[in-house]
TrEMBL record:
InterPro entries in the record: Alpha/beta_knot_MTases, MRM3-like_sub_bind, Ribosomal_eL30-like_sf, rRNA_Methyltransferase, SpoU_MeTrfase, tRNA_m1G_MTases_N
Name under which the protein is recorded: RNA methyltransferase
Residue ranges occupied by any MRM3-like substrate binding domain in the UniProt entry: 8-83
Record key words, sorted: Methyltransferase, Transferase
Molecular function (Gene Ontology), one example: methyltransferase activity
Cited Gene3D superfamilies: 3.30.1330.30, 3.40.1280.10
GO terms, biological process: methylation
Family the UniProt entry places it in: Belongs to the class IV-like SAM-binding methyltransferase superfamily. RNA methyltransferase TrmH family.
tRNA/rRNA methyltransferase SpoU type domain sequence ranges: 105-241
Length: 248
């Protein structure tokens, strides 16, 4: 049985203020936990079912592992059901290399408040090998359980910075391109884009904030032929990122 004190601690980590207070976050689901354990990120504790315990790395210290029932595991976490694993990990320190000081295409997100979308965008950054993701202060928490789960393990590989976005964009070197999606922008299918600079994506409900929009050097439009009002922000980002990398 998981002690009341440990249960209280795990439940506290469902909330951002306690994640910040304790410097820890939750990782749920077998795949994500295995990614965590192979990543080098510091792990405090791992809760597993007896069946999943057989899949843990042999070198993992047994003192970190607690075998629990599926019901206990589900009650600890945020998933509707969990029959594999849940881990407590230490929040990583912010990466020392500041965006803008290196080459490549960074993804910047402005007011993306849905944790599922944010996790998918981090996963996209991993797929395309981007050097990192910059979040506005109004984005969802990258270490929320739903965000971490949606990354499907990419949270271990993609550097994330949180910045006051207009100020950060304004501080970038002159001549560095800053792209953003816009219904009145250039048809992305007719452009030859290089994966350098920053691609900024806003929430699908409100788009980019005016202060961020003012920092763009080029606006990109994804042409469509149907009647849908808009595209999900993660789908839009995937289409745009593919156009940046299609000639690579």
């Amino acid at each position: 049985m998981v002690s009341k004190a440990v249960t209280k601690y795990v439940h506290a980590l469902h909330l951002k203020k306690y994640r910040l207070r304790h410097g820890a976050f939750l990782v749920e689901g077998g795949k994500s936990v295995l990614e965590l354990l192979s990543s080098g990120l510091q792990t405090e504790r791992v809760f597993v079912t007896a069946e999943f315990a057989l899949k843990l790395p042999a070198q993992l210290a047994q003192s970190l592992v607690e075998v629990v029932s599926e019901d206990e595991l589900t009650r600890l976490g945020t998933l509707a059901t969990n029959n594999t694993a849940l881990a407590i990990a230490r929040l990583p320190a912010e990466p020392p290399l500041l965006p803008g000081a290196t080459s490549g295409l960074f993804l910047a997100l402005d007011q993306v408040r849905d944790p599922g979308n944010l996790g998918t965008l981090i996963r996209l950054a991993d797929w395309y090998g981007l050097p990192g993701v910059v979040l506005s202060e109004t984005c969802a928490d990258p270490w929320a359980p739903k965000t971490v789960a949606a990354t499907m393990g990419s949270f271990t590989r993609v550097p994330v910075w949180q910045r006051e976005l207009p100020g950060w964009l304004s501080s970038l070197p002159a001549g560095l391109p800053v792209y953003g999606a816009d219904l009145h922008g250039d048809n992305v299918h007719g452009l030859t884009l290089q994966p350098q600079g920053v691609l900024v994506m806003g929430s699908e409900s409100h788009g980019l904030t005016p202060e961020v929009e003012a920092c763009l050097t080029q606006r990109l439009h994804i042409p469509g032929r149907g009647q849908a009002e808009s595209l999900n922000v993660a789908i839009s980002a995937a289409i745009l990122l593919d156009n940046f990398h299609r000639n690579g």
